[in-house]
Amino acid sequence: MILVLRALGVGDLVTAVPALRALRAAYPSRELALAAPGWLAPLVDLVGGGDRLVDTAGLDRPLRVGSAPRVAGNLHGRGPQSHRL
Prior knowledge:
Blueprint (H helix, E strand, L loop, with lengths): L1 E4 L4 H17 L5 E5 L4 H7 L4 E4 L15 E4 L5 H5 L1
Parallel strand pairs: 1-2, 1-4, 2-3
């Protein structure tokens, strides 16, 4: 699984689309999981943002994704909150 963190809103999802598509092209057979708020699910489906959404409300608690990802990408930003998560 490839886990991508992009945990805020619509603008952040739009900004992440090229990177998500590049990851899909680079790893076509791997599951691509996007960590984002659940209410973004319809938009994630429209932009082809991944195979599944890991519902997260922000950067204040650990993600529950099941097995450990083989690749992880932080598209949230370079702040310490997203690095710790």
